[in-house]
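Possible regression after last week's pipeline update?

I re-ran a chain I had predicted before the update to compare outputs. Posting the input and the new output here so someone can diff against the archived version. Not blocking, just want to make sure nothing changed silently.
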Amino acid sequence: QNKPKSRPNPYLLLGPPVPLPARLQTRPQLALQVMMLQVPGQPIILGCRVEGTPPVRITWRKNGMELLESTHSTLLANGSLMIHHFQLDGGGSPSDEGDYECVAQNRFGLVVSRKARIQAATVCIFHTHVPILYQPPVGEEGGVARFQCQIHGLPKPLITWEKNRVPIDTDDERYTLLPKGVLQITGLRAEDSGVFHCVASNIASVRVSHGARLTVSGSGSGAYKEPTILVGPENLTLTVHQTAVLECVATGNPRPIVSWSRLDGRPIGVEGIQVLGTGNLIISDVTVQHSGVYVCAANRPGTRVRRTAQGRLVVQAPAEFVQHPQSISRPAGTTAMFTCQAQGEPPPHVTWLKNGQVLGPGGHVRLKNNNSTLTISGIGPEDEAIYQCVAENSAGSSQASARLTVLWAEGLPGPPLNVQAVSVSSTEVRVSWNEPLVNTKEIIGYVLHIRKAADPPELEYQEALSKSTFQHLLSDLEPSTAYSFYIKAYTPRGASSASAPVLASTLGEAPAPPPLSVRVLGSSSLQLLWEPWPRLAQHEGGFKLLYRPASRASFTGPILLPATVSSYNLSQLDPTAVYEVKLLAYNQHGEGNATVRFVSLRGASERTALSPPCDCRKEEATNQTSTTGIVIGIHIGVTCIIFCVLFLLFGQRGRVLLCKDVENQLSPPQGARSPRDPGILALNGAGRGERAQLGRDKKRVDAKELEQLFPPAGAQDPGAPVLCEETQFSRLPLEGFSLLEEMMSEAKAPCPGPAATLPPQDAGPGLLSEGQAPRPSTAPTAQPACSGQ
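New output (post-update):
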């Protein structure tokens, strides 16, 4: 009853072989079937129908191994396999059960049929010898009785029922026989009493169960009974085109109404749907769309009182092809591609065979898109074969084949000979070769194919070389990396076959200096940041970190860090010291050059308050202030203050406060500096209003803070002036700068004498650029103090 419908796929012919007319094909065509049950001791013939260009050689495989002829089995002239006496294990002889394949081969290639599984038919065995009665042995008239016969056998046995040793009348609509061996009796009557037997039969045997007695009493009491589902639907897994039987037996008084629905709300439909008995749902010729959860509901008539039960139906579909592979012809040295797309439920797994042997990825063979695409690059004569796509899932399998023909032009040269690759340095390899033995006159050049040994073939690249070149130096390679090389000779008519590939690895080298940035976390802690180098771990490498106060001779460290680490924190540092930090990378070839940074922690908390935190990764270059740059910044600031004092001595009411481009003088020129960098010092003055009027953006810092950060040697008073004579540095040229003029109120006294003190913070400034005179209304005529400095 559940036999699948016939399908146009290839099948295995069972029984006497049927001769077929000869047809000329480019490759063998096979026809095979999938499953067979056989009675032990009986002969069996497996037929293999083959169509192809003769001569065609046919062999058989059992469980993947070639089956040799013996007295137990014979290969007939038409290719069929005859097993004289089908047998199971015993007597020292192997069992004939297993998977059989027919193999056909001619001069174009080899193909393998689908597998045919042979199993021995088994006798019917009852799980319980007495049918199960899902009802008290004494039932009431008008009630429901259900018997189930649990039995196993191959093939699945056919079950019938007897009452008092007489077959049950199946024309009685009150008796419902389900395919799974269930007997339902609705509307019980007194004449239904008796002893029931189930009879199971298949090709191997016939079995009769013990009897189960049913007694039907008089009419019921008529009392109200809640709806009850005696037996609900079971979970089923079927294959397409089979029949699904969802059982639902309900009792109650009054008799409940049974209805069906899907849990997902989709309609069940009407095509192929019928109700058997009083509530059993039958779905004929199931499809994948029938999969789902089905709900049986028993409703009390006229009310909303109901009971439900549910079961899941899973419908599987054998693998079938949406796109078959196509036979192709390609010139030697090019790429061939086969595409094979299959569908099924569950999704099928795709396997490729080359002349009957499983083909896996590797070398110049690639499988992509869940094995649905087979790519063969750089094809040669050894790739000419029949390729089969086998799609298989738990519901069945399908196979399709295609042929690859490799085209060769006459008179092509042979492959280049004696190809050698020698490492020259960490980035260079020299490849040499000799010209082919034959057909060398028409060679117009060579093509060298290069790729990393660990990369797939599609990532290779080529370099074209002249016909007179027999060695080539490859550069710009990666250190400590294995490469694969092969060469082809080209003529106007095509390319030669590829030479044998050779491998060579570039030499190793010590790693380059790592990029390092430093972030001040507090007055006594630093955070070091750099990029991780995964390649270091592949070469037994890592990082070494060393640090010291700039005034000391010895470093602390080295601290060894793995190649995957990208940061490290230094704590418990001296807040008054300038630190020198070194970071270097190493591998098995040695240590690379170190990256050095100088960092000052003096006044870190005050600078943090004055300036918001910086993004040290974005402003990496600005944190690289050296001790020399800081001292030069002090020199520039003090010089400007002295010029301001001289300017005041000549009667100018404004005061010089800020020099242009001080930020660029604080450290060696390494790129743009951020105005928010706490590592750069600026002199803040009192200029406000006039600076805003002229649109000039100047940075301001208290000179007392400058003296606190960098006190001069021998100073007795922290607030004492810093004289230019005490700081004599001329390592960096002093660039042009601007002068800020501070306008003092009349109530303020002029700055006294030559003392290098800070001007008042509350005076209104005026901007005096180089060569510009002050406004007559606010100040006497004065000469520019900083001109030409």
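Follow-up from reviewer: compared with the archived run. The longest strand covers residues 306-323. Marking as no regression found.
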